[in-house]
Amino acid sequence: MALLAPALLVGAGMLVPFVYLLARAAEADAGTLAALVLRWRTLELVGNTLKLAACVAALGTLIALPLAWITVRTDLPARRLFGYLAVMPLAVPGYVMAYALIGLSGYYGPLNHVFGLTLPRLQGLPGATLALSLYTFPYLYLNLRAALLGLDPSLEETARSLGRSRANAFCTVTLPHLRPALLSGWLVVTLYVLGDFGGVALMRYETFSFAIYNQYAGAFDRVYAACLSLMLMALAGAMLMGEGWLSRRRRFGRTGTGVPRAAEPVPLGRWRWPALLFCGLVQLASLGLPFFVILFWLGRAPAEIDWPALGMVAGRTVLAALPSALFAALLALPVALLAARHRGPLAALAERLSYFGYAVPPLAFALAAVFFALSAAPFLYQTLPLLMLAYAFSFLALAVGPVRSALLQMGQRPEEAARSLGRGPLSAFAGATLPRLARPLVAGGLLVFIVVVKELPITFLLAPTGYTTLSMTIFSRTNEGMLLEAAPYALVTILFSSLFVGLIMRHEGGRH
Predict the structure, then answer these.
(1) pLDDT in tens, 318-334
(2) By the number of CB atoms within 10 A of the CB, which of 123, 210, 292, 414 ranks highest?
């Protein structure tokens, strides 16, 4: 009971902005609301959003599936290095990838300056698809890599012994067992595409999130913006339910006895060089391209970089991200404890609510927080505490996961032993369990910190007036065509994110 109250309080905090979003949408009369929802413009936004999500999922799969198979199942030289590099694009935010693609072409771009090629600026559906695919394919890669490492090789060997070719065995035996990994990866990618704002805005492709921001910032029609936000949340909910429906009542685990062994590497033979070329092209496009374009623009006028301003913006980013990460870790502790140690509908409800903020597209979450602040707490509107609260609640699920896993692994025996020695419940928890939660709490905090550093929609709507962060500066300067001025901020963001992605990967590697 002592844990239930704070955990449910955290869950209720998740729902407050959503309730205010519903209240604001309810201000519209039924006829106007129906006309807004069913008008051609709204249907066009739905179509654009779904088309972009499908294209990004398809292109991401074409990149991630062969890359995962090559780095896990073959004798490719340096496959561990390629596997590590395949995760690093997570350090490149989607709007920085869009900046790189935009800055590559044009009259002043490096393609014309170095190679004499003048290409039209990438924009619309092709530009948004390429930018988001090059950033999000690691989500699919990580899922597929884990599935391939855990797949029993005897399944393919049995198919081969029945006379099937290697390609046929992969398509009929291996690929169906990768279905859960593909569904999970597609869900993460789709939710990201639904919530993305910076990449689609820079590529001038109108989706739900882009239209919500224009409606709120340009037309000041907050009722219509609230309706669009609720529709975007409904779309995200439909994706979650669709993934759950497609995954249920299917068995993918091995049913035989014995311990599964590791698969023998498949010799590539004459396919070694094409495989190396494919892996090299993926790394060149996802990592080399942003660095090349940023360094090109930095080299155009290095003396014009305003280092004091860059330091101030980087400092402000850390000033917002660090307390948010600490607060998220603090909120995650009672939720994870309740989820790991108690069963029942209230415990399950508290845990599910902690994931609610992460499933809601960031722009809709930010707009809900704006409505809440204006209606119930105007003293919080456009203040740093509100920005930090929104960060912490939106990304709380990232901090809950590692703590909950650690609690399930350690069990309650250390605390029971401490209590048998006469300690009280709080003293036993503080002395026996809390020290062992330090690493997962730090890991969850690191995840929240890195996501906050790259986050754009929440920052754009909730940051105090004049309070600029790295993501806001990159987006605003790129949107105005100031590619040279945006370059140092993009480089600092990538280097900053890479450092923390490396820390997380080292932390995860150290657990095995």
Answers:
(1) 999 999 999 998 988 88
(2) 210
